[in-house]
Protein backbone atom coordinates (compact mmCIF):
# COMPACT_ATOMS: atom_id res chain seq x y z
CA UNK A 1 0.00 0.00 0.00
CA UNK A 2 2.26 2.78 -1.18
CA UNK A 3 -0.32 5.57 -0.77
CA UNK A 4 -0.65 5.07 2.96
CA UNK A 5 3.12 5.41 3.42
CA UNK A 6 2.94 8.74 1.57
CA UNK A 7 0.04 9.87 3.77
CA UNK A 8 1.83 8.73 6.93
CA UNK A 9 4.88 10.75 5.87
CA UNK A 10 2.77 13.85 5.18
CA UNK A 11 1.07 13.47 8.57
CA UNK A 12 4.45 13.13 10.25
CA UNK A 13 5.81 16.29 8.59
CA UNK A 14 2.72 18.25 9.66
CA UNK A 15 2.97 16.81 13.18
CA UNK A 16 6.57 18.02 13.39
CA UNK A 17 5.43 21.49 12.37
CA UNK A 18 2.67 21.43 14.96
CA UNK A 19 5.32 21.25 17.66
CA UNK A 20 6.71 24.46 16.20
CA UNK A 21 3.77 26.91 16.28
CA UNK A 22 5.99 29.91 15.68
CA UNK A 23 7.06 28.61 12.26
CA UNK A 24 3.43 28.01 11.32
CA UNK A 25 2.50 31.52 12.44
CA UNK A 26 5.35 33.06 10.45
CA UNK A 27 4.44 31.01 7.38
CA UNK A 28 0.83 32.03 7.48
CA UNK A 29 1.11 35.66 8.52
CA UNK A 30 4.18 37.09 6.78
CA UNK A 31 2.89 36.91 3.18
CA UNK A 32 -0.31 38.69 4.18
CA UNK A 33 1.65 41.36 6.05
CA UNK A 34 3.85 41.93 3.01
CA UNK A 35 0.82 42.33 0.75
CA UNK A 36 -0.69 44.83 3.20
CA UNK A 37 2.63 46.69 3.29
CA UNK A 38 2.75 46.74 -0.51
CA UNK A 39 -0.80 48.08 -0.71
CA UNK A 40 0.12 51.16 1.31
CA UNK A 41 3.53 51.61 -0.33
CA UNK A 42 1.62 52.06 -3.59
CA UNK A 43 -1.16 54.02 -1.91
CA UNK A 44 -1.10 56.64 -4.67
CA UNK A 45 -0.94 54.23 -7.61
CA UNK A 46 -3.41 51.37 -7.15
CA UNK A 47 -2.70 50.10 -10.68
CA UNK A 48 0.88 49.24 -9.72
CA UNK A 49 -0.29 47.51 -6.56
CA UNK A 50 -2.73 45.54 -8.67
CA UNK A 51 -0.13 44.09 -11.01
CA UNK A 52 2.65 43.51 -8.47
CA UNK A 53 0.26 42.28 -5.78
CA UNK A 54 -1.13 39.50 -7.95
CA UNK A 55 2.36 38.37 -8.94
CA UNK A 56 3.48 38.33 -5.32
CA UNK A 57 0.57 36.08 -4.39
CA UNK A 58 2.27 33.50 -6.60
CA UNK A 59 5.82 34.25 -5.54
CA UNK A 60 5.35 34.06 -1.75
CA UNK A 61 4.37 30.40 -1.59
CA UNK A 62 7.28 29.56 -3.88
CA UNK A 63 9.83 31.31 -1.65
CA UNK A 64 8.50 30.16 1.72
CA UNK A 65 8.04 26.54 0.67
CA UNK A 66 11.50 26.57 -0.89
CA UNK A 67 13.03 27.63 2.41
CA UNK A 68 10.99 25.31 4.60
CA UNK A 69 11.49 22.24 2.46
CA UNK A 70 15.20 22.75 1.87
CA UNK A 71 15.83 23.00 5.62
CA UNK A 72 13.46 20.14 6.47
CA UNK A 73 15.05 17.72 4.03
CA UNK A 74 18.53 18.84 4.98
CA UNK A 75 17.69 17.93 8.58
CA UNK A 76 16.38 14.60 7.40
CA UNK A 77 19.68 13.97 5.63
CA UNK A 78 21.96 15.07 8.48
CA UNK A 79 20.03 13.54 11.41
CA UNK A 80 20.29 10.01 10.02
CA UNK A 81 16.53 9.62 9.74
CA UNK A 82 16.83 9.54 5.95
CA UNK A 83 19.32 6.66 6.14
CA UNK A 84 17.01 4.84 8.52
CA UNK A 85 13.93 5.38 6.37
CA UNK A 86 15.70 4.22 3.22
CA UNK A 87 16.84 1.07 5.06
CA UNK A 88 13.13 0.47 5.68
CA UNK A 89 10.55 -0.46 3.04
CA UNK A 90 9.87 3.19 2.17
CA UNK A 91 9.96 4.30 -1.45
CA UNK A 92 11.70 7.54 -2.34
CA UNK A 93 8.43 8.57 -3.97
CA UNK A 94 6.64 8.07 -0.64
CA UNK A 95 9.04 10.43 1.10
CA UNK A 96 9.02 13.12 -1.59
CA UNK A 97 5.27 12.75 -2.08
CA UNK A 98 4.72 13.06 1.66
CA UNK A 99 6.69 16.28 1.82
CA UNK A 100 4.91 17.68 -1.25
CA UNK A 101 1.51 16.86 0.26
CA UNK A 102 2.29 18.36 3.65
CA UNK A 103 3.81 21.57 2.31
CA UNK A 104 1.12 21.76 -0.37
CA UNK A 105 -1.56 21.70 2.32
CA UNK A 106 0.26 24.41 4.23
CA UNK A 107 0.58 26.48 1.05
CA UNK A 108 -3.17 26.23 0.40
CA UNK A 109 -3.81 27.64 3.86
CA UNK A 110 -1.19 30.36 3.41
CA UNK A 111 -2.57 31.35 0.00
CA UNK A 112 -6.19 31.31 1.20
CA UNK A 113 -5.32 33.88 3.83
CA UNK A 114 -3.15 36.04 1.56
CA UNK A 115 -5.56 35.90 -1.40
CA UNK A 116 -8.57 36.52 0.82
CA UNK A 117 -7.00 39.57 2.43
CA UNK A 118 -5.83 40.92 -0.95
CA UNK A 119 -9.14 40.51 -2.75
CA UNK A 120 -11.59 41.44 -0.03
CA UNK A 121 -9.70 43.80 2.26
CA UNK A 122 -7.15 45.47 0.01
CA UNK A 123 -9.36 45.66 -3.10
CA UNK A 124 -6.94 43.83 -5.33
CA UNK A 125 -8.76 44.02 -8.63
CA UNK A 126 -8.79 40.56 -10.18
CA UNK A 127 -10.88 40.06 -13.32
CA UNK A 128 -10.61 36.27 -13.19
CA UNK A 129 -11.65 33.91 -10.45
CA UNK A 130 -9.73 34.06 -7.14
CA UNK A 131 -9.82 30.24 -7.22
CA UNK A 132 -7.52 30.33 -10.24
CA UNK A 133 -5.16 32.54 -8.23
CA UNK A 134 -5.24 29.88 -5.54
CA UNK A 135 -4.52 27.14 -8.05
CA UNK A 136 -1.44 28.99 -9.33
CA UNK A 137 -0.32 29.65 -5.76
CA UNK A 138 -0.58 25.93 -4.99
CA UNK A 139 1.45 24.98 -8.07
CA UNK A 140 4.03 27.60 -7.11
CA UNK A 141 4.22 26.12 -3.63
CA UNK A 142 4.84 22.68 -5.11
CA UNK A 143 7.54 24.16 -7.34
CA UNK A 144 9.13 25.78 -4.29
CA UNK A 145 8.99 22.48 -2.37
CA UNK A 146 10.53 20.64 -5.32
CA UNK A 147 13.36 23.17 -5.71
CA UNK A 148 14.02 23.11 -1.96
CA UNK A 149 14.19 19.32 -1.84
CA UNK A 150 16.53 19.25 -4.80
CA UNK A 151 18.82 22.00 -3.56
CA UNK A 152 19.15 20.46 -0.08
CA UNK A 153 21.23 17.70 -1.69
CA UNK A 154 23.95 20.26 -2.40
CA UNK A 155 23.98 21.84 1.05
CA UNK A 156 26.03 20.39 3.87
CA UNK A 157 24.67 22.74 6.53
CA UNK A 158 21.75 25.02 7.29
CA UNK A 159 24.00 28.00 6.53
CA UNK A 160 24.58 26.76 3.00
CA UNK A 161 20.94 25.83 2.50
CA UNK A 162 19.80 29.35 3.37
CA UNK A 163 22.33 30.80 0.90
CA UNK A 164 20.69 28.84 -1.89
CA UNK A 165 17.64 31.05 -1.46
CA UNK A 166 19.27 34.17 -2.99
CA UNK A 167 21.14 31.97 -5.47
CA UNK A 168 18.09 30.15 -6.82
CA UNK A 169 15.23 32.55 -6.12
CA UNK A 170 16.64 36.08 -6.63
CA UNK A 171 17.63 35.71 -10.30
CA UNK A 172 14.17 34.35 -11.03
CA UNK A 173 12.62 37.24 -9.10
CA UNK A 174 14.54 39.78 -11.19
CA UNK A 175 13.83 38.06 -14.49
CA UNK A 176 10.24 36.94 -13.98
CA UNK A 177 8.66 40.17 -15.22
CA UNK A 178 7.78 41.55 -11.81
CA UNK A 179 9.90 44.70 -12.17
CA UNK A 180 9.73 45.21 -15.89
CA UNK A 181 8.01 43.33 -18.73
CA UNK A 182 10.15 40.45 -19.95
CA UNK A 183 9.84 41.69 -23.55
CA UNK A 184 11.79 44.85 -22.76
CA UNK A 185 14.78 43.04 -21.22
CA UNK A 186 18.13 42.60 -22.92
CA UNK A 187 17.54 39.64 -25.32
CA UNK A 188 19.92 37.23 -23.55
CA UNK A 189 18.18 37.89 -20.24
CA UNK A 190 14.84 37.44 -21.95
CA UNK A 191 15.90 34.00 -23.19
CA UNK A 192 17.06 33.08 -19.73
CA UNK A 193 13.76 34.24 -18.29
CA UNK A 194 12.04 31.97 -20.81
CA UNK A 195 13.51 28.89 -19.17
CA UNK A 196 13.04 29.94 -15.54
CA UNK A 197 9.86 28.54 -14.00
CA UNK A 198 8.95 31.63 -11.97
CA UNK A 199 8.37 33.57 -15.21
CA UNK A 200 5.49 31.23 -16.03
CA UNK A 201 4.12 31.46 -12.50
CA UNK A 202 3.96 35.25 -12.79
CA UNK A 203 2.57 35.10 -16.32
CA UNK A 204 -0.22 32.80 -15.13
CA UNK A 205 -1.07 35.22 -12.32
CA UNK A 206 -1.18 38.09 -14.81
CA UNK A 207 -3.56 36.11 -17.02
CA UNK A 208 -5.97 35.67 -14.10
CA UNK A 209 -5.62 39.35 -13.33
CA UNK A 210 -6.74 40.46 -16.78
CA UNK A 211 -9.05 37.75 -18.12
CA UNK A 212 -12.39 36.59 -16.73
CA UNK A 213 -11.83 32.95 -17.74
CA UNK A 214 -8.92 30.58 -17.84
CA UNK A 215 -7.23 31.42 -21.15
CA UNK A 216 -5.14 29.12 -23.30
CA UNK A 217 -2.05 31.03 -22.18
CA UNK A 218 -3.08 30.44 -18.57
CA UNK A 219 -3.38 26.71 -19.23
CA UNK A 220 0.03 26.67 -20.94
CA UNK A 221 1.69 28.65 -18.10
CA UNK A 222 0.25 26.53 -15.31
CA UNK A 223 1.05 23.38 -17.28
CA UNK A 224 4.68 24.44 -17.56
CA UNK A 225 4.91 25.27 -13.83
CA UNK A 226 3.36 21.91 -12.92
CA UNK A 227 5.62 20.01 -15.33
CA UNK A 228 8.78 21.68 -14.01
CA UNK A 229 7.67 21.05 -10.40
CA UNK A 230 7.18 17.36 -11.21
CA UNK A 231 10.49 17.14 -13.06
CA UNK A 232 12.40 18.75 -10.17
CA UNK A 233 10.63 16.45 -7.67
CA UNK A 234 11.84 13.45 -9.67
CA UNK A 235 15.34 14.94 -9.79
CA UNK A 236 15.06 15.45 -6.03
CA UNK A 237 14.18 11.79 -5.53
CA UNK A 238 17.32 10.88 -7.45
CA UNK A 239 19.41 12.81 -4.93
CA UNK A 240 18.25 10.61 -2.05
CA UNK A 241 20.95 7.95 -1.83
CA UNK A 242 19.95 4.56 -0.49
CA UNK A 243 23.63 3.75 -0.12
CA UNK A 244 26.45 5.50 1.67
CA UNK A 245 29.42 6.05 -0.68
CA UNK B 1 33.30 -0.98 35.71
CA UNK B 2 30.26 -3.23 35.73
CA UNK B 3 30.04 -6.72 37.11
CA UNK B 4 29.67 -8.78 34.01
CA UNK B 5 27.15 -11.46 33.52
CA UNK B 6 27.67 -13.10 30.17
CA UNK B 7 24.34 -14.81 30.32
CA UNK B 8 22.10 -12.56 32.41
CA UNK B 9 18.74 -13.95 31.40
CA UNK B 10 19.82 -17.42 32.44
CA UNK B 11 18.81 -19.00 29.17
CA UNK B 12 19.98 -22.55 28.76
CA UNK B 13 22.21 -22.05 25.74
CA UNK B 14 25.78 -21.83 26.85
CA UNK B 15 27.70 -19.15 25.03
CA UNK B 16 30.82 -21.29 25.24
CA UNK B 17 29.56 -24.04 23.00
CA UNK B 18 28.16 -22.59 19.93
CA UNK B 19 27.59 -23.76 16.41
CA UNK B 20 27.48 -21.42 13.48
CA UNK B 21 24.23 -22.85 12.20
CA UNK B 22 21.02 -21.70 13.80
CA UNK B 23 17.62 -23.31 14.04
CA UNK B 24 16.34 -22.29 10.59
CA UNK B 25 18.77 -23.21 7.86
CA UNK B 26 22.12 -21.49 7.53
CA UNK B 27 23.64 -18.66 9.50
CA UNK B 28 22.02 -15.23 9.57
CA UNK B 29 24.97 -13.63 7.82
CA UNK B 30 27.67 -15.24 5.69
CA UNK B 31 30.52 -13.18 4.27
CA UNK B 32 33.09 -14.47 1.80
CA UNK B 33 36.01 -12.21 0.82
CA UNK B 34 33.88 -9.19 1.67
CA UNK B 35 35.65 -6.01 0.61
CA UNK B 36 34.44 -2.41 0.80
CA UNK B 37 36.15 0.56 -0.80
CA UNK B 38 35.36 4.13 0.31
CA UNK B 39 37.04 6.85 -1.69
CA UNK B 40 40.39 5.31 -2.58
CA UNK B 41 40.74 3.47 0.72
CA UNK B 42 39.98 -0.18 1.32
CA UNK B 43 37.91 -0.02 4.52
CA UNK B 44 37.17 -3.75 4.75
CA UNK B 45 39.71 -6.20 3.40
CA UNK B 46 38.50 -9.62 2.24
CA UNK B 47 36.53 -10.60 5.35
CA UNK B 48 35.25 -14.14 5.84
CA UNK B 49 32.88 -14.77 8.71
CA UNK B 50 29.44 -15.98 9.72
CA UNK B 51 26.91 -14.66 12.19
CA UNK B 52 24.84 -17.48 13.76
CA UNK B 53 21.09 -17.13 14.17
CA UNK B 54 19.40 -16.36 17.49
CA UNK B 55 22.73 -15.42 19.09
CA UNK B 56 24.38 -12.19 20.07
CA UNK B 57 27.49 -11.58 18.00
CA UNK B 58 29.71 -8.77 19.15
CA UNK B 59 31.60 -6.77 16.55
CA UNK B 60 34.54 -5.28 18.39
CA UNK B 61 37.41 -3.10 17.45
CA UNK B 62 38.82 0.38 17.92
CA UNK B 63 37.07 3.44 16.51
CA UNK B 64 37.54 3.77 12.77
CA UNK B 65 38.29 0.09 12.17
CA UNK B 66 35.35 -0.37 9.81
CA UNK B 67 32.62 -1.56 12.18
CA UNK B 68 29.97 0.87 10.94
CA UNK B 69 30.88 0.22 7.30
CA UNK B 70 30.51 -3.52 7.85
CA UNK B 71 27.13 -2.96 9.49
CA UNK B 72 25.96 -0.77 6.62
CA UNK B 73 27.09 -3.44 4.16
CA UNK B 74 24.98 -6.04 6.00
CA UNK B 75 21.97 -3.72 6.15
CA UNK B 76 22.44 -2.92 2.47
CA UNK B 77 23.09 0.81 2.70
CA UNK B 78 26.79 0.69 1.79
CA UNK B 79 28.00 1.27 -1.75
CA UNK B 80 30.97 -0.50 -3.40
CA UNK B 81 30.65 -3.83 -1.62
CA UNK B 82 32.41 -6.71 -3.36
CA UNK B 83 32.66 -10.39 -2.49
CA UNK B 84 29.70 -12.44 -1.27
CA UNK B 85 27.48 -11.23 1.53
CA UNK B 86 24.40 -13.32 2.24
CA UNK B 87 21.93 -12.02 4.81
CA UNK B 88 18.99 -14.17 5.96
CA UNK B 89 19.38 -16.28 2.83
CA UNK B 90 19.41 -13.42 0.33
CA UNK B 91 22.15 -11.17 -1.06
CA UNK B 92 22.65 -8.12 1.19
CA UNK B 93 20.70 -5.09 0.00
CA UNK B 94 17.82 -7.08 -1.49
CA UNK B 95 14.72 -4.85 -1.03
CA UNK B 96 12.74 -7.73 0.52
CA UNK B 97 15.26 -7.79 3.39
CA UNK B 98 14.40 -4.24 4.46
CA UNK B 99 11.47 -5.29 6.62
CA UNK B 100 13.35 -8.26 8.14
CA UNK B 101 16.29 -6.25 9.47
CA UNK B 102 16.29 -3.69 12.26
CA UNK B 103 19.16 -1.22 12.12
CA UNK B 104 20.23 1.30 14.72
CA UNK B 105 22.89 3.79 13.64
CA UNK B 106 25.40 5.33 16.02
CA UNK B 107 23.55 8.63 16.20
CA UNK B 108 19.96 8.46 17.37
CA UNK B 109 18.14 8.67 14.04
CA UNK B 110 14.79 9.98 15.22
CA UNK B 111 12.82 13.18 14.89
CA UNK B 112 13.65 15.50 17.77
CA UNK B 113 10.52 17.59 17.16
CA UNK B 114 8.14 14.67 17.69
CA UNK B 115 7.24 12.86 20.88
CA UNK B 116 8.58 9.36 21.52
CA UNK B 117 5.24 7.82 20.60
CA UNK B 118 4.81 9.96 17.48
CA UNK B 119 8.26 8.87 16.30
CA UNK B 120 7.36 5.23 16.74
CA UNK B 121 3.90 5.70 15.22
CA UNK B 122 5.46 7.04 12.04
CA UNK B 123 8.12 4.36 11.66
CA UNK B 124 5.49 1.70 12.45
CA UNK B 125 3.32 3.13 9.66
CA UNK B 126 6.25 2.83 7.26
CA UNK B 127 6.88 -0.77 8.24
CA UNK B 128 3.28 -1.90 8.39
CA UNK B 129 1.15 0.63 6.51
CA UNK B 130 -2.60 0.79 6.08
CA UNK B 131 -5.69 1.46 8.12
CA UNK B 132 -6.28 -2.27 8.58
CA UNK B 133 -3.12 -2.67 10.64
CA UNK B 134 -3.77 0.21 12.99
CA UNK B 135 -4.40 -2.01 16.02
CA UNK B 136 -1.33 -4.15 15.34
CA UNK B 137 0.77 -0.99 14.98
CA UNK B 138 -0.46 0.48 18.27
CA UNK B 139 0.41 -2.79 19.98
CA UNK B 140 3.89 -2.92 18.42
CA UNK B 141 4.54 0.69 19.44
CA UNK B 142 3.47 0.10 23.04
CA UNK B 143 5.59 -3.05 23.24
CA UNK B 144 8.67 -1.32 21.82
CA UNK B 145 8.31 1.55 24.30
CA UNK B 146 7.99 -0.95 27.14
CA UNK B 147 10.99 -2.93 25.86
CA UNK B 148 13.28 0.06 26.18
CA UNK B 149 11.68 1.19 29.43
CA UNK B 150 10.46 4.58 28.25
CA UNK B 151 6.77 4.26 29.12
CA UNK B 152 6.90 7.23 31.46
CA UNK B 153 8.43 9.38 28.70
CA UNK B 154 6.21 8.19 25.84
CA UNK B 155 4.60 11.59 25.37
CA UNK B 156 7.73 13.69 25.87
CA UNK B 157 9.26 15.52 22.96
CA UNK B 158 12.33 13.54 21.85
CA UNK B 159 14.39 16.74 21.78
CA UNK B 160 13.93 17.10 25.53
CA UNK B 161 15.26 13.61 26.37
CA UNK B 162 18.77 12.81 27.56
CA UNK B 163 21.33 11.20 25.26
CA UNK B 164 20.78 7.75 26.72
CA UNK B 165 17.02 8.06 26.40
CA UNK B 166 17.40 9.20 22.80
CA UNK B 167 19.43 6.17 21.85
CA UNK B 168 16.81 3.97 23.50
CA UNK B 169 14.10 5.59 21.34
CA UNK B 170 16.27 4.80 18.34
CA UNK B 171 16.54 1.20 19.53
CA UNK B 172 12.78 1.02 20.06
CA UNK B 173 12.27 1.96 16.40
CA UNK B 174 14.46 -0.98 15.38
CA UNK B 175 12.44 -3.35 17.59
CA UNK B 176 9.14 -2.34 15.97
CA UNK B 177 8.83 -4.80 13.14
CA UNK B 178 10.02 -7.81 15.18
CA UNK B 179 13.03 -8.09 12.88
CA UNK B 180 14.86 -11.40 12.41
CA UNK B 181 18.18 -9.61 12.46
CA UNK B 182 19.00 -6.62 14.64
CA UNK B 183 22.08 -4.63 13.70
CA UNK B 184 23.04 -2.25 16.50
CA UNK B 185 25.91 0.20 16.01
CA UNK B 186 27.41 1.05 19.42
CA UNK B 187 24.06 1.03 21.23
CA UNK B 188 25.54 1.38 24.71
CA UNK B 189 28.03 4.19 24.12
CA UNK B 190 27.73 6.94 26.71
CA UNK B 191 25.21 5.10 28.87
CA UNK B 192 25.57 4.68 32.60
CA UNK B 193 26.42 1.21 33.97
CA UNK B 194 22.89 0.42 35.12
CA UNK B 195 21.40 1.28 31.74
CA UNK B 196 24.09 -0.69 29.94
CA UNK B 197 23.31 -3.74 32.04
CA UNK B 198 19.57 -3.33 31.42
CA UNK B 199 20.12 -3.03 27.68
CA UNK B 200 22.31 -6.12 27.55
CA UNK B 201 19.64 -7.99 29.50
CA UNK B 202 17.12 -6.83 26.92
CA UNK B 203 19.38 -8.03 24.06
CA UNK B 204 19.62 -11.47 25.68
CA UNK B 205 15.87 -11.63 26.23
CA UNK B 206 15.22 -10.71 22.61
CA UNK B 207 17.66 -13.32 21.33
CA UNK B 208 16.33 -16.03 23.65
CA UNK B 209 12.58 -15.45 23.47
CA UNK B 210 12.12 -14.05 19.96
CA UNK B 211 14.89 -15.99 18.25
CA UNK B 212 16.32 -12.72 16.95
CA UNK B 213 19.89 -12.59 15.71
CA UNK B 214 21.81 -9.63 17.11
CA UNK B 215 24.94 -8.05 15.75
CA UNK B 216 26.16 -5.47 18.25
CA UNK B 217 29.21 -3.30 17.74
CA UNK B 218 31.27 -1.72 20.46
CA UNK B 219 34.73 -0.31 20.95
CA UNK B 220 34.54 -1.11 24.66
CA UNK B 221 36.12 -4.51 25.06
CA UNK B 222 34.44 -5.41 28.35
CA UNK B 223 31.12 -5.57 26.51
CA UNK B 224 32.58 -8.54 24.63
CA UNK B 225 32.07 -10.76 27.64
CA UNK B 226 28.32 -10.34 27.26
CA UNK B 227 28.24 -11.72 23.71
CA UNK B 228 27.87 -15.32 22.57
CA UNK B 229 30.35 -14.86 19.77
CA UNK B 230 32.85 -12.23 18.77
CA UNK B 231 34.24 -10.72 15.62
CA UNK B 232 37.40 -8.76 16.33
CA UNK B 233 38.12 -6.18 13.69
CA UNK B 234 41.18 -3.97 13.30
CA UNK B 235 41.97 -1.68 10.38
CA UNK B 236 39.51 -3.51 8.16
CA UNK B 237 41.01 -6.94 8.87
CA UNK B 238 39.30 -9.66 10.89
CA UNK B 239 41.63 -10.63 13.76
CA UNK B 240 39.44 -13.33 15.26
CA UNK B 241 36.05 -14.99 15.06
CA UNK B 242 35.37 -16.96 18.20
CA UNK B 243 33.48 -17.25 21.47
CA UNK B 244 34.84 -15.10 24.31
CA UNK B 245 35.88 -18.24 26.26
CA UNK B 246 37.73 -19.88 23.41
CA UNK B 247 39.38 -16.60 22.51
CA UNK B 248 40.80 -16.20 26.01
CA UNK B 249 41.84 -19.84 26.19
CA UNK B 250 43.52 -19.77 22.79
CA UNK B 251 45.51 -16.63 23.56
CA UNK B 252 46.10 -17.62 27.22
CA UNK B 253 44.76 -14.30 28.46
CA UNK B 254 42.38 -13.19 31.20
CA UNK B 255 40.14 -10.78 29.32
CA UNK B 256 39.00 -10.19 25.77
CA UNK B 257 40.84 -6.88 25.83
CA UNK B 258 44.13 -8.69 26.54
CA UNK B 259 43.28 -11.26 23.89
CA UNK B 260 42.69 -8.45 21.39
CA UNK B 261 46.03 -6.82 22.21
CA UNK B 262 47.74 -10.21 22.02
CA UNK B 263 46.31 -10.76 18.54
CA UNK B 264 47.31 -7.27 17.43
CA UNK B 265 50.92 -7.91 18.52
CA UNK B 266 50.88 -11.33 16.93
CA UNK B 267 49.67 -9.85 13.64
CA UNK B 268 52.21 -7.01 13.77
CA UNK B 269 55.35 -9.05 14.54
CA UNK B 270 55.76 -11.49 11.68
CA UNK B 271 55.34 -8.96 8.88
CA UNK B 272 55.46 -5.47 10.52
CA UNK B 273 52.55 -4.12 8.57
CA UNK B 274 51.50 -0.52 9.14
From TrEMBL, chain A:
Pfam families linked: ABC2_membrane
Superkingdom assignment: Bacteria
Record carries keyword Iron: no
InterPro entries, alphabetized: ABC-2_transporter_component (IPR051449), ABC2_TM (IPR013525), ABC2_TM_bact-type (IPR047817), ABC_2_transport (IPR000412)
Keyword hit for Ribosomal protein: no
Membrane spanning residue stretches: 24-42, 48-74, 95-119, 131-154, 161-180, 222-240
Compartment(s) where it occurs, according to its Swiss-Prot or TrEMBL record: Cell membrane
Keywords annotated in UniProt: Antibiotic resistance, Cell membrane, Membrane, Transmembrane, Transmembrane helix, Transport
Topology class, membrane: Multi-pass membrane protein
Domain ABC transmembrane type-2: 18-243
Family as reported in the entry's similarity comment: Belongs to the ABC-2 integral membrane protein family.
Protein name per UniProt: Transport permease protein
Native species: Streptomyces violascens
Upper classification of the organism: Bacteria, Bacillati, Actinomycetota, Actinomycetes, Kitasatosporales
From TrEMBL, chain B:
Residues of the ABC transporter domain: 29-260
Annotated TM spans: none
Keywords: ATP-binding, Nucleotide-binding
UniProt-listed PROSITE patterns: ABC_TRANSPORTER_1, ABC_TRANSPORTER_2
Bias (Polar residues): 1-22
Stretches for region Disordered: 1-29
Gene Ontology MF: a single term: ATP binding
InterPro entries, sorted: AAA+_ATPase, ABC_transporter-like_ATP-bd, ABC_transporter-like_CS, P-loop_NTPase
The protein's name in its UniProt record: Multidrug ABC transporter ATP-binding protein
A Pfam family recorded for this sequence: ABC_tran
